[in-house]
Hints:
By secondary structure, the chain is of the alpha/beta class. The chain has helices at 12-16, 26-39, 41-51, 63-72, 75-93, 132-145, 164-173, 183-192, 209-218, 243-254, 269-282, 289-299, 308-318, 352-356, 392-408, 412-423; strands spanning 3-6, 100-103, 109-116, 119-123, 149-153, 177-179, 202-204, 223-224, 232-237, 261-266, 301-304, 322-326, 342-345, 382-389.
Amino acid sequence: MIKIMKYSEVSKNEIFARGKTSFDVSDIVADIIENVKANGDKALFEYSEKFDKAVLSSLEVTKEEIDEAFSSVEPEFIEIIKEAAENIKEFHKKQLRDGFEIRKENGTVVGQKITPIEKVGLYVPGGTAAYPSTVLMDSIPAKIAGCSEICITTPPSQNGKVNPVILAAAKIAGVDRIFKVGGAQAVAALAYGTESIPKVDKIVGPGNAFVAEAKRQVFGLVSIDMIAGPSEILVIADGKSNPEYVAADLLSQAEHDKMASAVLVTDSEDLAKAVSNELERQIPLLERAEIARTSIDTNGKIIIADNFDDVIAVSNEIAPEHLELVVDEPFEYLDKIKNAGSIFMGRYCPEALGDYFAGPNHTLPTSGTARFSSALSVDDFVKKNQYVYYSKEALEEVGFKVGFFAEKEGLTAHAKSATVRIERK
């Protein structure tokens, strides 16, 4: 049963304690990375057989496989994927930015240009569930940014095929290449390259503890989006909220993972008790009841605050991945929310809208990192290159100032590089 605690009666350590989110897999992952680095495709084939129980003849998904998968998916779902993709495109196109340039009369020019990252690798989880939504959320911003090659890695089924809905989403999103590789070995392949899989410049996308640790270990060789932990939801709800709705929203994340976190923060003790009862009623009805049960019992909590100011303060301190504002006038509170990956507003906006359809990205910061990081966006797939131009006359105006500054730092060669051009007038 979910824990219920009063904000004014328990320690802050208990209120803000995070459940165990992972276990140490660093040595295992390091060995996998070294094996892939040394043995390339051979290691990937062996890992597919060992971990996915799939004997593969090739790693790349063919055009024929994609077309076959696309035709096997219900036309109604294809249309839903297309509509979701359009919503995601519409939202992310607003994130495009232009470079800028500042020119001065003395011949000084400084500026910044926006350059797409050339090759990106997108990790799409498999295993207990298929995530075509992740395909859309990760690939569409990359496409809008102008990345020249977008590759997906995703685990195959035991029959050696990729789930058809993943391939259908990839086709709709315009992904360039798809590979039947999962786990830490997929991250290693994207980071180092193999005979079949190209080395990329950035790796994005969620995954299990092995994938997250692999991204951590290859960071620096390539860029990554974030180290994502288990999924989280925090619901802010007042006493007028429907406990059935609130419980369903908490379970929408609890069913993801036994280590997922579902938290309700409210100023209503009656709602807290009603939601607890609703959770007990709804959990046995879920297909993933065992996962949800463990998540709720281990990492779930209901926090009762004395007033709504404290409710908001608790939420900002936790900095959840997903935050629901289940109140009548959510926009009145929006500016008070400082830390959240994505915010869902009002009584008719379940977090699932963001997972699949509304348009904002669902690849979000977890484990409190929303205090300093943001959802995946077009910005994640571009670089900002600065440039500087000074005419001879412009340098003559400031060269000795630059030299003076450099000498104050004890860097006389820096100083000389600026002044030598002036001394030789």
